Amino acid sequence: MVSWFDSLKRAKNRSQADKKQVSCRANDCFFVISPTNSIVMKNNIKCLLGLLLLGGSFSLSSCRHMEMTNDQWREIVQYNYPVDSIDSYHTWNLLQDKALTIRVNIADQDIKTVQVLNGNPYLTEGVEILAERPCRTGQVVNPSFKVPTVAPTLYVAAVNGQGRYYVVPVENATDVTIGGSKVINDGTLHQPIYQTFTYLFEEDYPLPGDFDFNDVVLRISQHAVNDSTLALQVTLAAVGAANQIGAAIRLPHINRDDVKDVTIEEGSRFDEGYGISRYYISDDELVSGGLDGSAVINLFEDAHWCMKAEESMGQVVRMRYNTMKYEVENEAATVPTVTRTYDIHLKSNINAYYLSLADIDPFIIVASSGLCVEVHTYIHKYDEAIWHYTTGPGDQDDRVPWALMIPDASFHYPVEGIAIGMYRDGQISGAYSRYNHSFGQWGRNRNSYKDWWLYENATKAQVY
Q: pTM for this structure?
């Protein structure tokens, strides 16, 4: 992981041409951002962090003198981000809205549900269920749902009580009838899975890091078991971090008071038996109330321990798990992924079928200069869930994400130390750097190159 000081050195090297300098010592830092604007920071780098987190109005006893504008902080971040000239209106969103009217006209009187699919399960494995509604023959449903901005070919299916599928292609229509000669209901059925997103996190927020987006990798899906039970399946796929990381999921559209209880299908927590005092996730309950009253599913206190419950001399062993293609003693290892399925039992005023995977807010928790800081995807970047550490975006928003949501169940994240995609000074590189299909080009233009996540580096050596 690239340190804050190394990041500052990179900023210095890039900024010499326009007379911007950065120099730093461990306990006495002096930054020159421009010939006319400077800050002096004494004793501890956390002074800068405190100023950032509290919107430029923060003072700390260990800071003897400090003057820094939000524009200057934004300049430091953007000098270190993998992409320069970032689209100032970027939302880092890879989803779009869809809605269908679906009519069921099947002779089978045992129809139980209607599903929207991103492929034909009689032809393709790994087809995902994008929406599901209870439905009988002769009824109409109107599901709304999210699909990638690179829109898949959609199908709808009526499913009976024995799991038989009656499939019809949507063919760009918004009003579809399941019935007649277009119905496909024979052949080998590949059982569809529920829509799954991959969430990628950087641990250094709000400081620059290496932006390989593999410090924690989560794959998450959800579906309604019935009207009052929502199943949230979470897989911890990789930990490329150097330090302890906790994680949780905020459910913005569900109040804590709307949840009866939460159970785990596998019977134990991610960190069952964790023998060290909890701090990030101090609540021992599976569900707690967030700062805004929303329900928060408490995942784990320590990502490393969850991947491999190993201690040495009273300390959790911290290696990079599933982020390097070869094992290195005491540094990197390949281990099985870990999955837990949370059944969220809701009160009657919430219908689980109408809750969307796109609405959840997974986040990690890290220690940064004495503070507990949450790292959310860009849309929720300043939505504090359980820790208070910022006054909100104000005008200090740096316009860049430290967490990404990829609408792909098997997305190949970068290996350790390889940026997800760089575009600086006219040069494109990184794990997703195919020209006209690159992360960097998408960063510069939010309306183009939205398929970058489908085009990893051609050699595949830079992705896991």
A: 0.86
